Amino acid sequence: MPNKKTKNWDIQKSEDLYLINSWGSPYFSISESGEVVVSLEKSEEHPVTKGVSLMTIAKGLKERGFDLPALLRFEDLLESRIRLLNETFLKAMEKVDYKGTYRGVFPIKVNQQHQVIEDISEFGKKYHHGFEAGSKAELIIAMTYVSSSESLVICNGYKDSEFIDLALLSRSIGINTVLVIEMPQELDVIIERSKALGISPVLGLRVRLSAKAGGHWNSSGGDNSMFGLNSDEIMKVVDKLKGENMLDTLQLLHYHLGSQIPNIRDIRSGVIEASRYYCELKKEGANMLFLDIGGGLAVDYDGTHTNYGSSCNYGLNEYCADVVEGIMEVCDRAEIEHPTIISESGRATVSYYSVLLFNILDVERFNTKSDNDMLGDTTNEILENLFYTKNNLTTKNIQESFNDALYYRDTLKFVFNHGEITLREKALGERLFWSIMHKIEEFCEELEYVPDEIADFSANISDIYYGNFSVFQSLPDIWAIDQLFPVMPIHRLDEKPDRKGIIADMTCDCDGRINRFIGLEDVKNALELHQLRDNEEYVIGVFLVGAYQETLGDLHNLMGDTNVVSVKLTANGEYYLTKEVEGDTVADILEVVEYNTKSMVERMRKKAEEAVGSGTITAKQRKSFLELYQIGLRGYTYYENN
Questions:
Q1: What's the whole-model pTM score?
Q2: What secondary structure letter does DSSP report for 532?
Q3: What is the CATH number of domain 98-345?
């Protein structure tokens, strides 16, 4: 039954509050019943689609024996992203009569999980979508799962002789492998190994552009970037290849300005400069066929469509059009044939694919709203001033009252430390102070502009919602680089969220929390949430987490991988699970960090038997204890509702 606070609330207000139509379109939306739904992208095959409730999926997992937290992988969304990337590039080329074609490659480092690579191989086959490998292990994955002889395997990173041999030998079995030279000294090893094996390589050069992009990863570009060859080094490579009569093997130019480039102008600037290098290499006699523009295609995590680091001021159509037109413009001017365009778009390919769901275990409410703060018989001037400030607070004197309250609180701490007031008086003063802050926060909702220092302070009076997950395992970029992800409850969205809170995880670490959330105008330091109900799970979803999060996750507090399920959607609103991977047990994680669980059980048996011998426990209690110990080893590393 809706409470009074929901009378003036509807799903439109939830859509606006959580910006789901901005970051989630066309896949995620809110149903009339107030639940987040995931839908197939509308197409000729599916002109009308019915969404599937994430809450329905969560309940279905529980019925199947899977506890939260769980990572949902939506195969249809991944297939949609691969199709959109390839077809949008091809349409942009057709529109301007571009003579080359497009080949996408997925950088395996973005998500190396087997199911993900397998799905990309399957969905990308019709487009000859390939892989980018930056290590020997990734090369072995790419060689195994590349789907056609026209698909490319781009080899970046440091390469030893074994790496180079693998790449060369793969060409002899029909794999279209390209060795990209990242530093001049690599060339000598490649030449030596190609002669030894009698296999002619296909080579690329990574150029160090002067162009530089904004965003968190801007160090990937510019004159001082870590990787790539400058103009002089490129010419030395060209001359070396000429001397070896191998210039025809140089066929690709590669550059990378960085991941998550928010501003389209930076992308176009890089394309223009790289195209000039490409044309000049062609004029030098190199057999140039491919221009690899690297990664950088951004994801609009916060839904603001701006050039902020967690957003982008362009869409896929504009991105593809600017890349195609920029390359075409330079090549036409130089009278050079249009190259095959390669992009290494990883983040934009897999981000939408995965959603993390976790349940809230408990809430610590910051309850400062009290109308019963009485001074009693005290004559303490500080307490009287705080009481006066609270009772005379208005929207017109918010800043002054805020300043006064902070001053009186600091004074209160000082006099307590010097023994001038009692603990009871200090407690009353603190209650008055936080009551003032709560009242200020309520008044701020009526203001068009809230001073920054007051807005920042509001995080201190937010509730703490304790979530059944680990930031370090499932969302490491939140901790490491302050990455923003869309976070919201996946149900009860037809009700007004009447609390504000931050989300703490299960680790005993103060950094294990989410306290930065997307907002329309700025980052919010608290999220609008609902009060928990007795005997009802409250479930939070974190969206767009398919890139890097699974790969970078660590075992902080020995929290392991969550349950993972791959979900297939149907147009009529049904779903079924195609793959299921149970999350790590305690034993799994202990063995990862080199414990022998059988040996551990034996040690506990001996300790328990010694306790029986000393009379501390009975033989029956020993049996129960050891059973519980072994159940613990087999258990999920997260909270279980037994």
A1: 0.90
A2: P
A3: 3.20.20.10
